[in-house]
From TrEMBL:
UniProt GO MF annotations: calcium ion binding
Location in or out of the cell: Membrane
Organism: Tinamus guttatus
UniProt keywords, alphabetically: Calcium, Cell adhesion, Disulfide bond, EGF-like domain, Glycoprotein, Membrane, Repeat, Signal, Transmembrane, Transmembrane helix
Protein name: Protocadherin-23
Gene Ontology cellular-component annotations: plasma membrane
């Protein structure tokens, strides 16, 4: 008999299914001495293994996974059929699965970004890398960490090979190294080096900035500016750099001192220094400004610089005449070389900038005078005629007229500066000229709504004489119909009453200009004043109330009546437009807006409306006549339109049938009944006549043609006639 046995085996995890486990052998004695043996594995153990029932070979039926199941205990039963009864032997197989390195280490992320402040001490923990390995045995799942840097320069970090902790190995400085790219690897420790597996990730270490640097000025501490620059001129650009990042490196600029008069403005963001006032080197030649550059860190760091602004001199002082206006007089007909005036100017500058040169600038009449360029003395060059050149005066260059002399004084600076003064030279006169109007005829247009006393035009007659000889008096010598008068001194023509274009549209009169001389002729001009229309008249209907009639049934646009409105104004103010403003709610009528012709817009029916606006005001047509003035004026008129009847409706009986019952004994002359019909027409068209058209052949009945009364004319006999049917016609 077989005895119970126990065997132990080890199978590698990567053993392939369907292969015979040749290293698992049952006892050879069983195979030799007994030829009829049967092998089997208990049912609960046959998931991963199977056995050949005849040979006893055991083979793998499913793949093994050490991490799922690392040990199996199989119960093998051997039956010997040579003996009677058969004998059973049980063999227990203990099978251990040997782990294979079939899992790689694995990081959760492929890329991580880590931030660390630049001021942390050496040895500070930066990050802990943690890779997982799914193998079951110790060496296959034991992980060792290493790293490589992808950045140029020294790597300031260390990683612990077993724990994966990353620490600082050297002091950090963001301004030198702002970030480091590391490749971190995790490798298992399988016994065979060729079997070892690894995984890696990329880590970016960002060094975070702290405010550890003060701003450093990079701009010059010296600047120059001309004294004649305008306010707002850019003088200097102050610049400072701060190697820190973000707000720690943002620099603003401030003036601490030296700008007490607020001569300069400093943009705190851009560092642009500009003038806020006009500079004057003669007042202040140099400015020393204490400038502070301040970063935005916490706490903020700063630097200070003394900026010297030197104001450069220019020839900014111009010569000034002692008088801006000189007035003098010279008699006409004097010999050339007659003294006129001496002018003088001063210049606050010194040296060449203060040496002065006088001259008369070209202009009308300037050749009649000569000026000493050094002394400023002016004399005549010809014998003057006051009527030819009455007044010479000096003023600004741009205002030189035909009778303008411009005297200039300029210094010898580079560039030179100059100024001018006004010189009025009056040539004394005789009364040898009469007044003259510029034109012989004037035409103007004025609005008719001018207020009384309004000036419409100012006439001017020139007299070349001087003083009383040149005073002109104005007068009107024709009838202005009381509408206009003239100011004798100013020549201003004014209205003396309210104008009305509709009464008089044009005025023509003569105006005379005369001086005090009784010997010289007067000057006359003709004045024509056209009166412009103002919309001051509303259109007016010829009648305020119109009556008209129209037959019913006329086709649309049948003319009914033409109304007329007149407007005394002219142009658009007198153009009249007609419209219906009320009483036409049903749209039965229309009116020609320009001709005032009132017409039908639909076919009228007398029976629906016999009279428009006859019984109440709301039924009248109210017409509006308005002009095209601005604002528009208007008036209204009322039209009563009567629709005349046409015999277009037949009479209609109130009842189509009359059923009358009478006794045969009724007396002759008795009233049997009375028929009635109505007609929508009026007048003769509505007068109805009744006749019996049939059914009264024997003359039993009489019909009153006006009243419709039916009377008995003959005795009735029931036995002769039971029923009479009378056909009665209404016409």
């Amino acid at each position: 008999a077989f005895s119970q046995d126990f065997k132990h085996f080890v199978i590698p995890e990567n053993f392939k299914p369907a292969q015979v486990l040749s290293f698992i052998k049952l006892s050879d004695n069983h195979l030799i001495n007994n030829k009829k043996l049967h092998y089997s594995i208990a049912e609960e153990d046959d998931v991963h293994f199977e056995i050949d029932s005849l040979t006893g070979d055991i083979f793998l039926s499913n793949e093994l996974d050490y991490e799922t199941a690392s040990h199996f205990l199989l119960q093998v039963t051997i039956k010997d059929y040579e003996n009677t009864p058969p004998q059973n032997t049980t063999v227990f197989l203990s099978i251990d699965v040997e782990d294979q390195n079939d899992h790689s280490p694995h990081f959760q992320d492929d890329f991580v970004v880590i931030g660390i402040e630049e001021n942390v001490p050496v040895g500070t923990l930066v990050y802990t890398f943690n890779a997982k390995d799914g193998d079951g045995s110790f060496l296959n799942s034991k992980i060792k960490y290493s790293m490589e840097t992808n950045s140029l320069g020294e790597n300031p970090f260390l990683i612990h090979p077993s724990y994966g902790t990353l620490i600082t190995a050297f002091p950090l400085d963001r301004e030198i190294t702002c970030s480091v790219i590391l490749t971190v690897s995790a490798i298992d420790q399988a016994i065979n080096l060729t079997d070892r597996k690894l995984d890696s990730l990329t880590a970016k270490i960002v060094v975070l900035d702290i405010n550890d640097n003060s701003p450093i000025f990079t701009s010059s501490p010296l600047s120059y500016v001309m004294e004649n620059v305008e306010a707002g001129f850019l003088v200097h650009r102050i610049a400072a750099r701060d190697p820190d990042e973000g707000k720690n490196g943002q620099v603003t600029y401030h003036i601490l001192s030296g700008n007490e008069n607020e001569t300069f403005i400093l943009d705190k963001v851009t560092g642009l220094l500009s003038t806020s006032l006009l500079l004057d080197r003669e007042t202040q030649e140099r400015y020393n400004l204490a400038i502070m550059a301040l970063d935005d860190g916490i706490p903020a760091l700063s630097a200070t610089q003394i900026l010297t602004v030197v104001v450069l001199d220019v020839n900014d002082e111009r010569p000034i005449f002692l008088k801006q206006t000189y007035e003098t007089a010279v008699c006409e007909n004097q010999d050339p070389g007659e003294f006129v005036v001496m002018v003088e100017a001063v210049d606050r500058d010194s040296g060449l900038n203060s040496l002065l040169h006088y001259e008369i600038l070209p202009g009308s009449g300037y050749g009649n005078f000569r000026m000493n360029s050094d002394t400023g003395k002016i004399v005549t060059t010809i014998s003057l005629d006051r009527e030819t050149e009455e007044t010479f005066y000096i003023k600004d260059r741009e205002d030189i007229s035909n009778f303008t002399l411009v005297i200039e004084c300029h210094d010898l600076g580079n560039p030179p500066r100059s100024s001018t003064a006004q010189l009025y030279i009056t040539v004394l006169d005789e009364n040898d000229n009469n007044p003259l109007f510029a034109k012989h005829h004037y035409q103007i247009s004025v609005r008719e709504d001018l207020q009384e006393g309004s000036a419409v035009m100012e006439l001017f007659a020139s007299d070349e004489d001087d003083g009383l000889n040149g005073e002109v008096m104005y007068s009107v010598i024709d009838d202005t119909f009381g509408a206009f008068a003239i100011d004798s001194v100013t020549g201003s023509i004014v209205t003396t009453q309210i104008l009305d274009r509709e009464t008089k549209s044009v005025y023509t009169f003569r105006v005379v200009a005369s001086d005090c001389s009784p010997h010289l002729p007067r000057s006359t001009t003709v004045m024509m004043v056209w009166i412009q229309d103002v919309n001051d008249n509303a259109p007016k209907f010829e009648q305020s109330y119109y009556k008209a009639s129209v037959w019913e049934g006329q086709i649309p646009k049948t003319d009914i009546i033409q109304v007329f409105a007149t407007d005394l104004d002219s142009g658009l103010n007198g153009e009249t437009e007609y419209s219906i403003v009320s009483g036409n709610e049903n749209g039965a009528f229309l009116i020609d807006s320009s001709r005032g012709i009132l017409a039908t817009s639909t076919i009228l029916d007398y029976e629906n409306t016999s009279s428009y606006r006859e019984t109440a005001s709301s039924h009248y047509l109210v017409l509006l006549a308005s002009d095209h003035g601005s604002p528009s004026l208007n008036s209204t008129a009322t039209v009563l339109i009567t629709v005349q009847d046409v015999n277009d409706n037949p009479p209609l009986f109130n009842n189509l049938e009359y059923h009358i019952h009478v006794k045969e004994s009724i007396a002759i002359g008795s009233r049997i009944t009375e028929v009635a019909a109505s007609d929508c027409d009026v007048g003769a068209n509505a007068e109805i006549t009744y006749t019996i058209s049939s059914g009264n052949d024997k003359g039993h009945f009489h019909l009153d043609e006006k009243t419709g009364s039916v009377d008995l004319m003959k005795t009735l006999d029931y036995e002769d006639t039971v029923k009479f049917t009378l056909i009665i016609q209404a016409t």
